[in-house]
Specification:
three-stranded antiparallel β-sheet, 8 strands, 189 residues, alpha+beta
Length: 189
Amino acid sequence: MNKIKIFLNPIEGREKYINSIASQGYRLVKSGSILHEFEKTDSDYKYAVQYIGYMTNKERKEYSEFLNNMNFKVFSAPLNIGKISFGNVKLRPYNYPKSMIATSPGMINNEILIIESSEGKEIPIFTDSSSKYEYLKRRKLPYYYLLVVSILLIGLGIVNILDNKSIILGSILLIIAITGICRFNYISE
């Protein structure tokens, strides 16, 4: 069974969606940016979704292998919708000091890790509250980066270095950045 789903919240929303389909007796076979393939099963499966875009490709492979050795099945999924890339390079300055440059093949289109557990086995994503705090802090970094860019656009528009459209764009990006930061502050509480 193939299902199409677009996520406004690609991590928590995807986890909730996949687990709701799994509770109806289906197992994830493949996950993409919007297309998900499931198969009917008699077993009980649970899923955890984790953002790993801050990792290097080597770290991603080692982490996936570690989970596979613990008898968890893992799937990679892209964070972006409609991004097909071969031989691409992407700058991720908010991932400093590691994985500042993402490449394809590599970490582009592999930013999300879906972990499958069977028979009620606990999925070991966060072992304590400090590891969850560090994870959420990493996920907030792109919004802080967006906040700086939006303020820069507004400031350059005000002093007439850029045209007035930069003020509008900066204001929209500022709202998105503040909303994202507030959402992660709510999740971390």
